[in-house]
Design goal:
By secondary structure, the chain is an alpha/beta fold. About 45% of the residues lie in helices and about 10% in strands. Strands 3-2-1-4-5-6 form a six-stranded parallel β-sheet, with helices on both faces. The longest helix has about 55 residues, at about 15-65. The chain starts with 14 loop residues before the first helix and ends in a 42-residue tail after the last helix. The relative contact order is 0.07. The structure holds 1,4-dihydronicotinamide adenine dinucleotide (NAI) and oxaloacetate ion (OAA). 1,4-dihydronicotinamide adenine dinucleotide (NAI) binds near residues 103, 127 and 172.
Length: about 300
């Protein structure tokens, strides 16, 4: 009969000797830690240490994410995957990307496919979507990917979407102004938003197509006309202008670009007008609030 040996130690220990041995072990460990941290401080210096800590945190995060991938089979990963990737606890969410085969659309599709909050990813473009959708679908994450190409498939791409992201259109080429961009992208955005109002009127709409300060009001007008407008569900992505403003300002003022904070105000009153209020903090220069930088 099998017996448990958890309760009695096979070799009886003398209490005093045992206590001394435990004490010396603890002291040894403590001293080793002190010596290590001393060596660490003096060999690396403060800056390097900070960098290393950040790198360690990053790689730990990456390792956690890797181990959370659904293909993983070992027990600890399964435990982690429950909190990071589980479809049991996450609600179903469909995200549609319109213009998914473009320069912005492709990496965006990749990021959405990696997002554990997305359960269904709908990739729409007027061309090249099947290949992009096939590539993205091979990523081993939760979202199911479907590709749609051409106007006749737009309705299917949009139906049931909770979020629609729009990077469809043309990018600016050398010599083009944002007005030129508007002349092309306004029509594209108009037809896409008309379809959104019809097939997924309650979706959150995230506009990337430039000029965002004009394409967002176009979307708003389309939705108002269709009776589906909700200001809390329409967004414009201004990232490009924010990072550009930071880089340009830092270059002009000859200050480090890192650590700069900019407040970007879009002026919707006049068509094609984009105005900035730039507030660079921590960059060692005195700048008046209200200073403007054109795009
Ligand atoms: N708001 C921001 O921070 C940023 C905005 N942009 C803007 O995003 C837009 C896209 O830029 P890129 O991806 O570099 O251009 P791109 O030319 O690489 O991609 C645009 C995609 O839109 C597709 N497209 C064109 N008409 C369409 C329609 N009617 N329906 C669906 N898809 C359509 C094209 O086939 C193409 O695949 C541009 O307007 C650009 O100015 C770009 C970077 C940042
Ligand atoms: O077209 C792009 O890729 C973005 C751009 O430079 C602009 O809109 O100013």
């Amino acid at each position: 009969m099998a017996t448990s040996n958890c309760q009695s130690s096979p070799t009886p220990r003398k209490p005093l000797l045992f206590f001394i041995s435990q004490l010396s072990l603890a002291a040894f460990l403590f001293l080793s830690l002190q010596v290590l941290s001393f060596l660490f401080k003096f060999s690396l210096g403060k800056k390097k240490k900070k960098k290393m800590k950040a790198a360690m945190l990053r790689s730990a995060g990456a390792a956690l994410r890797r181990s959370a991938a659904p293909s993983s089979t070992c027990a600890p990963s399964r435990l982690i995957s429950r909190s990071w990737y589980s479809s049991e606890s996450q609600p179903e969410r469909k995200v549609a990307i319109l213009g998914a085969a473009g320069g912005i659309g492709q990496p965006l599709s990749l990021l959405m496919k990696l997002n554990p909050l997305v359960s269904s990813l709908s990739l729409y473009d007027i061309a090249n979507t099947p290949g992009v959708a096939a590539d993205v679908s091979h990523i081993n994450s939760r979202a199911l990917v479907a590709g749609y190409a051409g106007e006749e498939q737009l309705a299917q791409a949009l139906e049931g979407s909770d979020i629609v992201i729009i990077p469809a259109g043309v990018p600016r080429k050398p010599g083009m102004t944002r007005d030129d961009l508007f002349n092309i992208n306004a029509g594209i955005v108009k037809s896409l938003c008309t379809a959104i109002a019809k097939y997924c009127p309650n979706a959150l709409v995230n506009m990337i197509s430039n000029p965002v300060n004009s394409t967002v009001p176009i979307a708003a007008e389309i939705f108002k006309k269709a009776g589906t407008y909700d200001e809390k569900r329409l967004f414009g992505v201004t990232t490009l202008d924010v990072v550009r403003a930071k880089t340009f300002y830092a270059g002009k003022a000859k200050v480090p670009v890192a650590g700069m904070f900019f407040l970007l105000l879009l002026d919707f009153r006049g068509l094609f007008v984009l105005s900035f209020v730039c507030l660079p903090f921590n960059c060692g220069v005195n700048t008046r609030m209200g200073e403007g930088i054109g795009v």
